[in-house]
Each structure stands twice: as structure tokens, then as C-alpha cells.
Amino acid sequence: MSFSKLVFAPLSYTGWGALEQLLPEVGKYTPKKILVVTDPMLAKIGLTNRVTEPLESEGYKTTIYTDVVPEPPLQTGENLVAFTRENGFDMVIGVGGGSALDLAKLAAVLATHEGPVADYLNLTGSRSVENKGLPLILIPTTSGTGSEVTNIAVLSLETTKDVVTHDFLLPSVAIVDPELTVSVPPKVTAATGIDALTHAVEAYISVNASPATDALALQAIRLIARSLRTAVQNGEDKRARTDMSHGSFLAGLSFFNAGVAGVHALAYPLGGQFHIAHGDSNAVLLPYVMSYIRKSCETRMADILDALGGNSSFMSDEEASYKCVDELKRIVQDVGIPSTLAGFNIPETALDSLTADGVKQKRILARSPLPLHEADIRKIYQSAFNGVVTEPD
What we know:
- The protein is of the alpha/beta class and 393 residues long.
- It has helices at residues 22-27, 40-45, 49-57, 74-87, 98-110, 186-205, 211-233, 238-258, 262-274, 278-292, 298-307, 317-334, 351-358, 362-365, 374-386; strands at residues 12-14, 33-38, 61-65, 91-96, 136-140, 152-156, 161-165, 173-176.
- Belongs to the iron-containing alcohol dehydrogenase family.
């Protein structure tokens, strides 16, 4: 009998006003020195103050760390972990998008370990995470990465990406408050929203999918599909922001347990080689990967079409799977993300190097319902460059 393992963050608060739970949760740990890892722009516009000011009013000592960049390189992680070790913090709070949250995970866990961050990387590291580290609270300010409920911290290498992953990277508490996402600009809303959608879609077609992850993924798709366009067009729409926040959260829970696959595997080299935002990388590849693997998961793609707002009742699974690809492509276009690699100024000459790096993502590729080998990956990149969906020969 086959079975599934399900792992979730120990405690999560979700919904408008959830940030009010911060002080009670911090109080459970009575920290003396709190490190707040955040995006520099959030500190500049004062959003980070919504976290630090209540803490300081209660007498907690906080230090704000803003050396955070999108798609953080390994050295950024090394610097933060060294800073955390040197300054004797006893709690870490991550505030921001996926990069800030991933870095906060590294700070909290590796502060109590020895050696450089590079030693803990999944593909090339020689050390293992051995203890839980410092108490960690994660507070996302975007709706997309799901980092607040996953055990992965992603770092950019010279031409690709690698991760530090262990269940000890799960936060002690996740606080998901859609009110914190209202100020996110349309371009970031679009990219992170498609990222969340991709998490849910890939979790649903993953070879590791289960009834529990299916339920989470399909509801995430429903929420995102009905709200993403509105959130991009009108960031102050409370219902759209709430739907996106919950959709991202559910997608995170789903893909953490079922895994992502081909879209993410091929997206990593785009970020590594061309520094394209992770959400944009997923968005530009999503319809092309799904078209290529379509025959391996037609029935599930029919379900995805329904969750996207379509109606597969009077179609064959094959027809519905084609419609699903069309709808995914339409959503990407509607939120203003380029639909081809050329649209990101990626030259055709780069396709070979992208393929070489994509093949290395074996941990992620293993979850695809259609095995993707080097020739397949090259065809998908070519398809995404040309802007024409394709399938295996």
C-alpha cells in the first residue's frame, strides 16, 4: 500500500489582522535580542516598523538587517549567517518576500551550526543540518513564494540555484496577513501570484501528489484564478488580496508536501544566468512545460481547468488539457508578464547553457509525471523562446 508523508509548519495564523498575534507569540520565547531580516524597500517605506515598533514598545531589543536582494546569491547568505553568529541573537523574524524569508531561515538554523553555508547546500554540500536553531517567525509581505511554510532556502550560484533544505528550516510560527500585501506594486503582485499558481499546478500533477495535497492545490488554484487579475489591477481590493494571500499559503502547503517539478527545474537556470525574478521565470515557462507533459496528466489538467474557472464537463480529458494550457498562457499574458524568453531579452544562443543547468535539477525533475531528459528540456526552452507550445515527438 502506498502512503504519503505530510509535514506542516507547527503554527500558522492567516487572515486580515493576523499580525496582531506577533506579540503573544514572541512572548512565549522571551528573547533578549531579536534579528529582523527584511527587504530594504520595506524598511524604507516603514512597513517593517509594523513589526519592530510593537516589539520595542514591549521592551524587546531588535536589530534590522536589510542586506537582502532578490534571488540572493550564496555570499549574501554567508554574510547573514556570520552576522547572526557574531551578535548572539536568540530569535529571528523574517519579514518580506521569499528572499527575506529564505535568508531568515538560514540565519535561524545555521547560527547554531559550524562551517559555511556552502557546506549545507543540497547538490554540493558535505554537512547536514543537525539541530533546530533559533526560534523563527516568518511574516510574508507578498502572496507567492510560500516560503513561510516550507523547509527550503534557495540561493543563487554562478549560473544556477541550489537549496539548503531540512525540516528544521520550518518556522516556529508563520503569520500570513494579507493587509501587509496591499502596498505590493502590480509587477511584483503579478510575478509572485503566478509563482503561487505554479506551485499549486505542479503540486497537483506531481508524482508525489496525495488526496491531502490535491485538496490544498485545487483550492489554491481557485482562489488565485479568481483574484490575481484584480489584485494586479487594484492592489487595494481587500477580497482579492485576501484570496491571494490564502491561495499562496495553501499552494505553499501543497507543494511543500507534493513537490514542484519541471517548471521550477527549468526556471532556476533563468534566475541563475539572467537574474530574472523567480516568479517571472516560472510564468514564462509554465504553459510550455505543461503543454510538453500534457499527455502524461490529461485528467489532472482537466481538473486544473475547472479550478481555473473553466468547464471540462462536456470535453474529453484530452480537449480539456489543451484548454488548460491555453488558460494558463492567458493568465500570464493578462497580468503583463512576457510570454517568451525573447521577451526577457534572452538570446537563442543561451538555450544550450540553460539546458545544461536545467538537467542538474534532478531533485525537482524527479517529480514530473513525464520524465524530462536533456533533449526534452532543450525542446521546452526552444519552445519558450519561439513562443509556440510543443509536445514530445
